[in-house]
Amino acid sequence: MKPGDAAELLLLAALWGASFLFMRVGAPEFGPLALVFVRAAGAAAVLLPLLAWRREAAALRTHWRPIVIVGLLNTAVPFTLFTAAALVLNAGLSGIFNATAPLWAALFAWLWLGERPTWWRTLGLAVGFGGVLLLAADRASLRPGTPGISPALGVAACLLATACYGFTVNYTKRRLAGVPSLALAAGSQSAAALAMALPAWWAWPATLPGATAWGAAAGLALGCTALAYILYFRLIAHVGPAQAITVTYLIPAFAIAWGWLFLGEAVTPVMLVGGGIVLLGTALASGLVQGFRVPAAPR
After folding, report:
1. How many domains does the chain have?
2. How far apart are CA 68 and CA 66, in angstroms?
3. Cβ atoms of residues 20 and 95 within 8 Å
4. What are phi and psi of 31, to 5 degrees?
5. Which of 218, 250, 217, 214 is nearest to 232 (CA)?
6. Using one digit for the tens of pLDDT, what is the confidence trace for 160-170?
7. Could you tell me if residue 296 is inside a domain?
8. What is the C-alpha to C-alpha distance for residues 24 and 142, in angstroms, rounded to an integer?
9. pTM of the model
10. CB-based contacts of 233, cutoff 8 Å, min separation 6
11. Are the beta carbons of 98 and 218 closer than 8 angstroms?
12. What would the pLDDT profile of 57-81 be if each residue is shown by its tens digit?
């Protein structure tokens, strides 16, 4: 990976890690439904003109049905779940749970597409979900907090969101192979914005959110979604998907750092140990780590 590509990878991880910070800031004033609508609509407003400029809009008309499904299951539903979880979980913990998406992707590929995992990948699934259980046990309280959501429900929301990501990546592989990535990004964000418009109108806060909350919403829409998608697709084009997906392992570190730096969130030993276990399991399950091998004797 060239230095420029490595810098873009770090910037992408910083942006996606910051999304958990922005959700923590914006969710209490907007509420999950309104904030997700603003995020998706803002991203679509940036991506659609770019799509038209690249003359790839025809792909939306050809593949609109599966793109709508991706918009629902890869944006509208998981963004809402993560935003709801942000009301009761800190940014770092949500970022760690986000790293389980490749675990779900490997599991769905096994159960749905018949891609039987190797022994090391099976071990990765077990290790990764073991780390999830450790983190979940630390947040197992069922007592609702101020927003009416318990920490345990917040954990469940994060895991359901990442399960959506894991399903969608396999669905995309099966139904949208060859579709321009920018068309998929712009179309899915547009579909999510349309799907969330009515729920957002119904749940729009009675008190207009303040400047800080609007700044967080703008950061989510423009930085963590529109710009992040552009960077991600540039990386896929320059270094390939296998290298680009390594951003998954950097996001939790940035999520923890932003939460600690700007919100004063505590970094506990359980978070560090459980996060390390999740990342190890994810690396094994996604094939990044194949286990230790004995080197062949020199000939």
Report:
1. 1
2. 5
3. yes
4. 85, 155
5. 250
6. 999 999 899 88
7. no
8. 20
9. 0.90
10. 181, 182, 185
11. no
12. 999 999 999 999 999 999 999 999 9
Under 8 Å CB-to-CB from 145, ≥6 apart: which residues? 87, 88, 151
Cα distances (angstroms) measured from residue 161 to each of 73, 99, 178? 9, 11, 25
Total number of residues shown for the chain:
299
SS3 285: helix
User: Does residue 248 form part of some domain?
Assistant: yes
Share of the chain above pLDDT 70, in %: 93
pLDDT of residue 147: 72
Q: Is 297 within a domain? A: no
Tokens 């290298």 found at: 243
Is 298 contained in some domain? no
202 Cβ contact list (under 8 Å, min separation 6): 33
E strand spans, 204-288:
none
- For residue 248, the enclosing domain spans 3-285
Helix (H, G, I), strand (E, B) or coil at 220: helix
- Residue found under tokens 């992040």: 228
